[in-house]
UniProtKB/TrEMBL annotation:
Protein name: HTH hxlR-type domain-containing protein
Organism: marine sediment metagenome
Amino acid sequence: LLHHLQKITGWSAGKISEEVNGFLHMGLIEKADVSRKGKIIYSANSAGLILLKFSKSIINRMVKWEQDLEEMKLDLENNKKSLENEKGFTRIVELNDYFLGAIKKYKKSFEVMDEFDESF
């Protein structure tokens, strides 16, 4: 299985192990059994709950960027006169605004997901 995962993802065995450990830490999967040969068998309770928890982890990662993006927006606004004629300036401002808006929406959905998750 590891070989197939490496082929599909292009990841090293170490990276796959790191991701599996991350899924374990987030509670997306759990160790179900260990074979006589030492192979670990993982299980999950529900595909829906896995998707929900995985989505929450992605949103949580994005929310951590909010402060940096707010600071970047302020820097771009404060230095607009010296930067606005630089190639890509407008696009950077647009992307920054897009990501800030998305993060705000994700934070709201994160709160809803927390309420939903607490009911299980």
